[in-house]
Design brief:
- By secondary structure, the protein is an alpha/beta fold.
- The protein folds into two domains: about 10-235 and about 310-330, P-loop containing nucleotide triphosphate hydrolases (Rossmann fold, 3-Layer(aba) Sandwich), CATH 3.40.50; about 240-305, Alpha-Beta Plaits (2-Layer Sandwich), CATH 3.30.70.
- It has twelve helices and 15 strands.
- The strands form three sheets. It has a seven-stranded mixed β-sheet with strand order 6-7-8-3-9-10-15, with helices on both faces.
- Strand 12 and strand 13 form a beta hairpin.
């Protein structure tokens, strides 16, 4: 598979973690199955990094290797410039991770559960109220765990990872099984943690959900790297912006728009999809409406159609089937390291 140099943000910025040529296979009844194939992963310090791909693409396997839970067949891994798993004990207190469903005592309050966890991992008890506040559960700390919604239970699990004040947080599919309100709560929690100076690595197969919170992303498929880089640059690969207009006569509207210098094409359900002509710059929706109105064609609907991570992923997967290989986004400016002194703490 073709390879290329890491994007500039991976070379110049201090990395929270990285992998090089990482490979892991499993023995099955049908022989060896490749779970991760030569993966190069670069997670910049600070912000939210989305680790994206469909179920079975190797995300959880990669995370388990980084945490020392399983051993890779080959390749190298570093966390805060320390090779792992060899030097994982030196950095483990700077990592907080959730790779399984949270386990708490149902009959105990949230605060009591965290107090017990803090005692078990050697974290100061004074951190309990702080982390409850940090995940938005301060007013529900006296409620029993069994009364919590799924979203609240997941936020309590995140609170547990914060007891030792880690620099890096790793969440594997944290919104699985949550309703829209719970997903929103977790998304806001992750964004808040990143804005406070931590690095958040979140794996997910729900690409559009991560798009709303991530600063940078890695997209993998079948255990291989498909793309990585800044979210805005990755989205630029999804195609040009367009507007979908609904008009009484789509065929006539398309002729008018083509004559006005746009690039129209038939849209779904009797609409017209309008893009800027090649070399014409960015699409201006006001110009689209003006061109139609001058011919007394009035819109019933105008909706922007912008590329999203799901579209990019589907495109990359198709290219991967054709053997297109690794792609990197154009280099954004280097990301600064998180402000302030290093903290120690976390739960892995």
């Amino acid at each position: 598979m073709p390879t290329s140099a890491p994007p500039r943000h991976a070379r110049d910025a201090e990395l929270a973690l990285s992998t090089t040529s990482l490979r892991k296979t499993y023995r099955t009844r049908k022989g060896r199955r490749v779970a991760v194939e030569g993966l190069d992963l670069h997670v910049p310090r600070g912000g939210v990094h989305g680790f994206l791909g469909p179920n079975g693409s190797g995300k959880t396997t990669t995370i388990r290797m980084l945490l020392g839970l399983i051993k890779p067949d080959s390749g190298t891994m570093t966390v805060f410039d320390q090779p792992v798993p060899e030097r994982l004990p030196q950095v483990v207190d700077r990592i907080g991770a959730i790779v399984e469903a949270p386990k708490f005592f149902p009959a105990f309050t949230a605060r009591r559960n965290l107090e017990l966890l803090a005692a078990a991992i050697g974290a100061p008890s004074s951190r309990v109220d702080q982390v409850l506040t940090e995940v938005g559960l301060a007013e529900r700390g006296k409620d029993r765990f069994r009364s919590y919604s799924l979203g609240m239970k997941q936020r309590l699990a995140i609170a547990g990872t914060l007891l030792k004040d880690p620099d890096l947080l790793i969440f594997d599919e944290p919104t699985n099984g949550l309703d829209p309100a719970g997903i929103h709560e977790i998304r806001e929690t992750m964004r808040g943690l990143a804005d406070a100076g931590r690095t958040v690595l979140v794996s997910s197969h729900i690409l559009n959900e991560v798009q709303q919170v991530a600063d940078t992303v890695t997209i993998i498929g079948r255990g291989r790297l498909l793309a990585e880089g800044d979210v805005s640059e990755i989205l630029a690969r999804g195609g040009t912006e367009a507007v979908r207009v609904r008009v009484p006569d789509p065929a006539v509207a398309a002729q008018v728009l083509a004559a006005a210098g746009f690039a129209p094409e038939p849209g779904p359900s009797g609409t017209v999809l309008v893009r800027a002509a090649a070399g014409a710059g960015r699409l201006d929706a006001a110009e689209v409406t003006r061109a139609l109105a001058t011919r007394e064609i009035y819109l019933a609907e105008l909706v922007w159609q912008r590329p999203d991570l799901e579209e990019v992923f589907l495109s990359l997967t198709s290219e991967d089937h054709l053997g297109a290989g690794v792609q990197h986004a154009p280099p954004p400016p280097p990301l600064p390291p998180a402000a302030g002194p290093h903290r120690s703490g976390g739960q892995s």
